[in-house]
Specification:
The complex is a heterotrimer of chains A (about 290), B (about 270) and C (about 475). Chain A has about 290 residues and is mainly alpha-helical. Helices cover about 70% and strands about 0% of the residues of chain A. Chain A has twelve helices and no strands. In chain A, helix 3 crosses helix 11 and helix 5 crosses helix 7. Chain B is mostly helical and about 270 residues long. Helices cover about 80% and strands about 0% of the residues of chain B. Chain B starts with a helix and ends with a helix. Chain C has a five-stranded mixed β-sheet with strand order 2-1-3-12-6. Chain C has a four-stranded mixed β-sheet with strand order 8-9-7-10. Chain C has a two-stranded antiparallel sheet with strand order 4-5. Chain C is globular, with a radius of gyration of 25 Å. Chain C starts with a helix and ends with a helix. The chains are: A mainly alpha (about 290), B mainly alpha (about 270), C alpha/beta (about 475). Chains A and B meet through helix 1, helix 3, helix 4, helix 5 and helix 6 of A and helix 1, helix 2, helix 4, helix 5 and helix 6 of B.
């Protein structure tokens, strides 16, 4: 008699629907992207095979190059500005005894709200005449700043809105790691005469480095994924100041002159970039592999 | 000494204030009577309360319709994804086809590495070709599919930790593998299932890109798209826009108030494992 | 055994996924091939369909016809009311008919939804459509639009339209404009009085007026350029002035170049006004609706917009204090301008189009819709209630019924003009138009000069002309 756990019918039943859905909506799109990217299909006429010209056109377009730079700025901002602040706040929360739950709960809130709503929310905050930010500046006599209308302010404005949304998430993540450090280590250090800052720097931070590494990877992935907040706040403007690769792709493929061939080529470029950056990071800083079950 | 105790709190309270001020500001603005009042006194409590703004927004923004669509879509896709992931996780972890299982696991793992928007256009073309563009299937299928990699990963991890004796005992009692799954394993993995469900529910609820382009019929729209459309239609009526924001955010906050532990856990653990 | 099961599952799922996805594309092709098939039975059997419907009367099976419109938001409410009446009337006439209205924002419909639906081959049955090479004519060439020539001939309205050129391809008509519009300056009457400004009749007077307003802390021209089509309205009219009306059609024909001195002069004038600060500050972050707000709240004294905006200014809930206090004047002649300087911008490019993929009953519904929408009564209503210029010829009586002074002023402007030139967004290829949107924003942001803009545009135009 066959063991019930070796029942091929049940096995199939349990795995095929998942694999089917996954295959259709993950694997097939990847394959078809790889195909369409080499054509110039715009949805209306028959398409032609155009080889690498979509990719050449993309890299030749200064707006796209700008978009690449903007993605890198997003990532850079996440890593070099947000992460130190995240660690700082996590350490602060871990160091207090009371209200820890309160802090943890409140800072996490923005990350559960839809990015599009956050875009509307901050779009309103940045409103030049009625928005609170300019009203605040007015109290100090500073003139109205056209946050989302001027190329030089738009990107920082979006970066701040984005940071506002996600920092809490990472703070809670890091907090969990900090709290997982056994108290004995700190106690031993106190006995040895180390003060608060020395303890944090020499014990806590090194011990949470693996998690910080994960946070960096997530930041890279997140930086490549940015699109909703840009589309809702600025649509990539003004004059491409906030354009990121994904919003460029959306505007090209779904805009005035849809070009699906070109759009999928951009999608592949985004994917390649994401892989490239993650691998670069892995190679330079290394990471102990965790996870995997076989 | 006292200073040392106070400073962290001071800094943290300032940060919390920075995090929460937009919400408070929006709440107050939504109850104000005019743009002039909002501009004149942004942080102040409304001088006169205008709760009728909420009724106006509900009607003009058709929030009921969008809300229903979001609930129904998020619920069904999250539920389906949770069940499918559980079934697959069970199959690959507990059932005795280890090599196939490993292979399926690796395949699903690939999905974790693909950034969300890369597949957008190809999925759009696929949905178009399947003829389901502008129907709820156009969102249900990608949402469910997108939730599978993380779901399978999380549930596989959870199931691995379940003791084997329970299974042995159940099999001795004559349970089939399906029966074992339904009667024993599923109840045991409930905490993880709930987490997977909540994370995917939130993900689908908040999703904007696909919802915006895959659905154009107003009656089928979800909340994020509806809100952006509302904002575009009523740009200059800030009180109304703020009301819309409150409508979008309140349900999520409510959910969060009750289920924060699972939500935080689900979102953070999921990312680390990935 | 294990290996075979594994291989089986692998093959099964890859095969299924591929088949499903490919099957979908076949389905799509069959659907488009089927279009030709379904159109003929419909056209050749109207008699049976007619009697069937009449006899069927109350027992007729219900069917829906999708209708995409752009009349959402406060400013469009008059137009929506007219549409609703047409819908009701048509539903009453065709048994079993129910229209499914789908309201989408103008630009989203024109540039995102409709192109995508045309590509997928499943546009709504009736939809708001813009004329011109980048919109209606493009879709007509791809066979997506219903040829309405037989319908308008049957209804006897074929020669009643003022200008069908933007919907006509090879002599066949593929869409019907709902109204006409002209783009010019709306101005704040009390404000002009207050500062002693007369309605400008020359460019110098216009610039003097702008200067006066500026000195008094008022923005001369309201502007919201986040959506690039808004500033392009004024640019288009400046091109019509500096380079002459023929230039607008001349670009795709190759007879006029963007980088000619005249066209460049038009852009340079716009650039000059930008640099002088005549436009709203922070315009790149403001949408079309914000521009109206600037004008209505008195922050700006003039606003260059299309005549379709006129209905807003008779509605107190939208125009506030400015209700009934708005006047209109066309762009004055420019010194050294080519061509007839009395020409104004005239567009008959917005209207309704119909899917080529219609069955008999849908065709009946479409015919009834056209009959009820495009007649003197509805055109007059559009004029009186909404301030929209008619796209069809109206009797002198009808025209005389207009009382709104603003609309009268607009009609007078058109009457006095020597002729009309279109907007280049209906004459040039999509790629060129798209580039013009990108370039005007660069100009406004100070990132490009007029010369650079026109060079870039000419480059794209030449490529588009070569690909024709």
């Amino acid at each position: 008699m066959k063991h019930p756990m070796r029942n091929p019918w049940i096995y199939t039943l349990f795995t095929v629907p998942t694999l089917l859905l996954y295959g259709m909506f993950f694997l097939w799109p990847m394959l078809s992207s790889a195909y369409y990217a080499f054509t110039d299909w715009n949805g209306l006429e028959n398409y032609r095979y155009v080889g690498w010209s979509n990719f050449a056109a993309a890299f030749g377009d200064p707006d796209f190059r700008r978009a690449i730079v903007n993605n890198l700025i997003f990532i850079g901002f996440s890593i070099f500005v947000q992460i130190p602040l995240i660690v700082l706040f996590a350490l602060l929360i871990a160091s207090v005894r009371r209200l820890r739950g309160f802090y943890k709960t409140t800072v996490f809130v923005p990350s559960i709200v839809s990015t599009s709503v956050i875009g509307i929310l901050w779009g309103f905050i940045y409103e030049p005449e009625v928005g609170p930010l300019n009203r605040l500046l007015a109290l100090f006599g500073a003139g109205p700043v056209y946050w989302l209308a001027e190329p030089k302010w738009a990107l920082p404005a979006v970066l701040i809105a984005n940071a506002w949304q996600w920092m809490g998430f990472y703070i809670v993540l890091v907090l969990a790691a900090i709290l997982a450090i056994p108290r004995e280590l700190h106690e031993a250090a106190v006995v040895d005469g180390a003060n608060g800052w020395q303890r944090e720097l020499n014990i806590t931070v090194p011990l949470i480095m693996p998690l910080i590494s994960v946070v960096v990877m997530l930041s890279i992935a997140g930086g490549m994924r940015v699109v909703d907040i840009v589309l809702v706040m600025t649509k990539g403007g003004p004059v491409g100041a906030t354009e990121v690769m994904a919003s460029y792709m959306v505007n090209e493929a779904m805009g005035i002159n849809p070009n699906y061939g070109f759009g999928t080529a951009i999608a592949l470029i985004i994917f390649a970039f994401a892989l490239l950056l993650t691998s670069l990071y892995q190679l330079t800083f290394g990471r102990r592999t965790e996870g995997g079950y076989f | 000494m006292l200073l040392k105790r106070v400073v962290p709190h001071a800094v943290l309270l300032a940060y919390v204030a920075a995090v929460l001020f937009p919400f408070v500001f929006v709440l107050f603005s939504s109850l104000k009577g005019s743009n002039v009042e909002i501009a004149a006194d942004p942080f102040g409590i409304p001088k006169t309360w205008h709760p009728e703004n909420y009724l106006e927004a509900w009607v003009k923004a058709k929030i009921g319709v969008y809300f229903f669509n979001s609930v129904y879509l998020s619920f069904t896709s999250a539920l389906t994804a949770a069940l499918l992931s559980a079934a697959t996780a069970f199959a690959i972890i507990r059932m005795r086809y280890p090599r196939i299982g490993r292979w399926i696991y690796q395949t699903v793992l690939i999905g974790m590495f693909i950034p969300g928007n890369v597949l957008f256009i190809a999925q759009y073309l696929l949905v178009m070709n399947l003829g389901v563009l502008n129907t709820h299937w156009a969102l249900f299928l990608p949402y469910t599919a997108g939730a599978l990699p993380l779901g399978v990963l999380l549930l596989a991890a959870f199931m691995k930790s379940l003791p084997g004796e329970l299974e042995e005992a159940a099999i001795m009692d004559g349970l089939s593998s399906a029966g074992l799954f339904a009667k024993i394993v599923l109840p045991l993995t409930l905490p993880a299932l709930v987490t997977v469900f909540i994370v995917n529910f939130l993900g689908a609820w908040n999703e904007y890109l696909l919802a915006n382009f895959f659905i154009s019929k107003d009656a089928l729209r979800t909340l994020p798209t509806g809100m952006v459309g509302f904002r575009d239609a009523f740009r200059t009526n800030y009180a109304l826009i703020c009301t819309g924001i409150v409508y979008s955010v309140a349900p999520v906050l409510l959910l969060y108030a009750f289920l924060q532990k699972q939500i935080i856990e689900g979102m953070t653990v999921g990312s680390v494992k990935g | 055994m294990k290996k075979r099961l594994g291989a089986a599952i692998l093959i099964l799922f890859i095969a299924l996924s591929t088949v499903l996805a490919a099957c979908g594309s076949d389905k799509n092709e069959n659907a488009s091939k089927g279009n030709e098939g379904s159109a003929s039975p419909g056209a050749s059997a109207p008699a049976s369909a007619g009697t069937g419907d009449d006899a069927g009367g109350k027992d007729a099976e219900p069917f829906t016809v999708s209708l995409r419109h752009i009349q959402i938001g406060e400013a469009q409410k008059f137009r929506k009311a007219i549409l609703d009446d047409v819908v009701k009337k048509t539903e009453a006439e065709v048994p079993g008919l129910k229209f499914e209205l789908d309201g989408v924002e103008d630009q989203v419909n024109r540039f995102t939804k409709l192109p995508a639906e045309m590509a997928a081959g499943n546009p709504p049955k009736i939809f708001d459509l813009f004329g011109g090479a980048g919109d209606a004519l493009k879709y007509a060439k791809a066979g997506r639009l219903l040829d309405v020539t037989p319908i308008i001939e049957e209804l006897g309205i074929a020669d009643k339209f003022l200008n069908l050129s933007q919907f006509t391809l090879d002599g066949r008509v593929y869409g019907l404009p709902i109204g006409g519009s002209t783009e010019g300056f709306f101005y704040n009457i009390p404000m002009f009085e207050k500062y002693g400004i007369k309605v400008p009749t020359t460019l110098e007077e216009l610039e003097a007026a702008a200067e006066t307003l500026k000195q008094n802390g008022i923005t001369p021209f309201a502007m919201g350029s986040k959506a690039a089509w808004v500033p392009l309205m004024m640019v288009n009219t400046l091109i019509g002035r500096y380079a002459g009306p023929e230039a607008i059609d001349g670009f795709p024909a190759g007879t006029h170049a963007w980088n000619s001195p005249e066209v460049t002069a038009a852009f340079a004038k716009y650039e000059e006004w930008v640099k002088k600060g005549y436009f709203t500050k922070g315009e790149l972050g403001l949408e079309y609706a914000d521009m109206l707000n600037q004008f209505v709240t008195g922050k700006a004294g003039m606003m260059f917009d299309g005549s379709w905006r006129a209905s807003v200014f008779k509605d107190p809930s939208q125009a506030g204090e400015l209700t009934g206090q708005v006047g209109f004047f066309p762009m004055p002649p420019v010194p050294g301008g080519k061509g007839d300087q009395t020409y104004v911008n005239g567009n008959y490019s917005n209207g309704y189009g119909f899917s080529a993929d219609l069955n008999e009953r849908e065709l009946t519904a479409v015919k009834a819709f056209i009959k009820n929408m495009y007649n003197e009564e509805m055109q007059l209503r559009g004029l009186l209630e909404d301030g929209v210029l008619p796209s069809m010829k109206l009797s002198g009586d009808a025209l005389g019924k207009v009382e709104d002074p603003l609309v009268k002023q607009i009609m007078e402007t058109m009457r006095r003009a020597g002729g009309a030139f279109s907007h280049f967004d209906s004459t040039v290829h999509s790629e060129v138009y798209k580039e013009s949107e990108a370039q005007i924003q660069r100009l406004i942001a100070g990132r490009a000069t007029a010369a650079e803009v026109t060079e870039a545009l000419q480059k794209i135009q030449e490529i588009a002309n070569a690909n024709q």
